[in-house]
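Working notes for the structural subgroup meeting. M.R. asked for a predicted model of this chain before we commit to crystallization trials. I am recording the input and output together here so anyone reviewing the notebook later can reproduce the run.

Input as submitted:
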Amino acid sequence: MPAPTPDAGSPTPARRTLRLGRSVRIERSGDFARLRQQGQRMALGCLIANWQRLPDGAQPRLGVVTSKKIGGAVQRNRARRLLRETFRRHQYDLAQPVDIILVARNSIAGRTYAEVEKDYLTTLRRAGLLKPT
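Returned structure, recorded in token form:
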């Protein structure tokens, strides 16, 4: 059996990871307040998006807000997972880096991933944040 090459398994510059690490999350309350005051906003379907464009070369970041109005802890956690997953899968579809906060609306309870993803992509498309296809 041939020995593995030294660079086997190392990511190439062209390969993009779909990870969503801690550095990609917006966690500071000051950042949430800044986006709410200075950013743009659009509500569509089961979510509200607040965003602010970043300079080229910056990394896009995500913050998620779920209210107790959605339901108990199980429903809120599921809503957070759905919103983070849609961002994770489409983070490289953004035309330029943005800080984005996704606020789950009451209607997210009981929705499937496909329905949440459709609302997310429609919102970003209308906002002009997605790359042209």
